[in-house]
Amino acid sequence: MKDMNQENKPSVTVFAPATVANVACGFDVIGLALESTGDEMDIRLSDTPGVRITSIEGAKLPLEASLNVAGVALQALLQEYGKPEVGMEIAIRKNIHPGSGIGSSAASAAGAVAGANMLLNDHFSSDALIRFAMEGERLACGTPHADNVAPAILGGFTLVRSYQPLDVIALHTPADLWVTVIHPQIEVRTADAREILKQQVMLKDAIRQWGNVGALVAGLYREDYDLIARALEDVIVEPIRSILIPAFHDLKLRCREAGALGGGISGSGPSVFMLSKGEANARTVAAMMESIYAPLGVDYHIHVSRISSTGVKAIKAHQHAVL
Fold first, then answer.
1. Does the active-site annotation cover 190?
2. Residue 12 clears pLDDT 50, i.e. is over it
3. Three-class SS of residue 298?
């Protein structure tokens, strides 16, 4: 029989957005959130201490909390909350495929902690939620990076200025900036994609990359689309990782010819993103992506989206917590 008392506990259903990280020149520091694509999670307070994952739809992932990114992130939150009698239950509906390069693990981790915080009357700051969600990323790929979980929680574009101490900055997002993402149905594991990277870079490449990061941030604030286009250049990571993605160079060249400002590898791949000014250009870019990938015999999904201004958001709530 169902525990009716448990069913009456405060709960919330959240939408946790997909994200694009490593935005061209912004490896491990710049990310953005998508408005149209993401996971959904039901989070409920429980009389049973700890974290229990009740179901996962859409992906084969562990239900054991300590082996699941959402569970680990939520365990970190509850440990800092400091009330051992408080428990949480989570049901997850995965719409973002693991290994897609659009922040599958980040959506799970960010959605869990942001939803739980809603039930705890916003006890924690956004910075704290990012820290907790990073523990999920540590489990997923061995590195607690924030460039996916930060935009998933804050929305828009975000910049990780520092990891020690953690310092995350919400950036301005031009209202007419759209993103088109193609997700080839192949898996590129983040840990594997990191393994192939060089541990040292040439000074001239680092200088060029720093210039592009500064120009991208300036372009966002000035809503200077030409400057954004010039700044979307990665001379350090993309030349190496692009070998993992079918038709990458042709895709990037022809999408720019079709009107995209520019783009690159989303996260560690295999997804590729392109930024455009306006929805019409973004959809023209999507058509170009389809024309390139259709003959390859590789299954793919294409997402055309505004950039989310909110990050994780509640889409349904029942009662309010009074903890």
1. yes
2. yes
3. coil
